[in-house]
Design brief:
The chain has a single domain, classed as Rossmann fold, CATH 3.40.50.410. It contains 8 helices and 10 strands. The chain is globular, with a radius of gyration of 17 Å. It starts with 12 loop residues before the first strand and ends in an 8-residue tail after the last helix.
Length: 267
């Protein structure tokens, strides 16, 4: 059965994070006085710290960081910009994040929203990395996409191409988080969020439907982790890795989906 490999130094995890940094990301997140991009950066820092902890081993007074996670981070609007290096281990990622003032360099200043260009960059990166030996037997890479607005381009075909990439443990997983968009799904917060099973729940907006269809179905191991760790305790089997982010609490929990990969590590 696929999606069984645990994250370890021998079988590291790969995460590609693409973040919408278009002008509307400068608008306030509902219910807060801070722009959306600041909340994305704040909670990104939390999950980076969590991944660092999962990569750390304590030996007496010494802490050894093992390269169990690698990240590729890009921000986009009308153009796509790589954040730092194209392939960073977790320790290097944390160092860059800290040295940058706990920031991914987001500012809501990259104009329009060209999702197709951002997904093409991510596809090229993932295809290149998966052509080598490093990840061929690892838990499949995860593409995590955060956006708050309508894209002027359609990335659906590229998302499908990305989902066809694979390791021996399964196909690449695509996660889409739509910040601040209402849907037909009735829930109050993370504690009763059931996940999206079909288009009727994701709509009625065309952008929501498109992102839902671009998203992977959550493997059983991720569903189990989301429930066991109390991130989304009511998440349904068969739901897609598509989320609408109505509040900062939802944003915090959605970003933790990254950390749910292989949380029971083999050392």
């Amino acid at each position: 059965m696929p999606y069984e490999k645990k994250i370890s130094q021998q079988f590291p995890g790969l995460i590609a994070l693409i973040v919408d940094d278009s002008g509307s990301m400068g608008d306030h997140l509902p219910g807060t006085s801070n722009p959306k991009y600041e909340w994305v950066e704040r909670y990104s820092g939390i999950i980076l710290d969590e991944l660092l902890k999962r990569s750390s081993e304590v030996h007496g007074d010494d802490v050894k960081i093992k390269p169990r996670y690698y990240l590729h981070v890009a921000k986009y609007g009308g153009t796509t910009h790589l954040w730092k290096d194209p392939h960073m281990d977790i320790e290097t990622t944390i160092r860059h994040f800290t040295d940058s003032g706990d920031s991914l360099g987001l500012s809501g200043s990259l104009g329009g929203t060209d999702a197709k260009k951002a997904f093409k960059e991510a596809f090229d990166f993932l295809k290149r990395e998966l052509s080598g030996e490093k990840y061929k037997d690892s838990f499949p890479p995860m593409l995590f996409h955060l956006t708050d607005g309508e894209s002027q381009t359609d990335a659906t075909k590229l998302a499908e191409q990305i989902k066809q990439l694979s390791t021996s443990d399964g196909n690449v997983l695509v996660v889409n988080a739509y910040i601040g968009t209402q849907t037909s799904l009735n829930y109050q917060g993370p504690e009763d969020f059931p996940g999206y099973l079909d288009v009727s729940e994701a709509g009625p907006g065309n952008d929501n439907i498109r992102l839902f269809e671009m998203s992977s179905v959550a493997p059983d191991c991720i569903v189990d982790n989301l429930k066991a760790e109390g991130i989304f305790p009511e998440f349904r089997s068969g739901a897609r890795l598509f989320f609408d982010v109505r509040t900062k609490e939802m944003l915090k929990h959605v970003i933790q989906v990254i950390g749910s990969i292989g949380s029971r590590m083999e050392r």
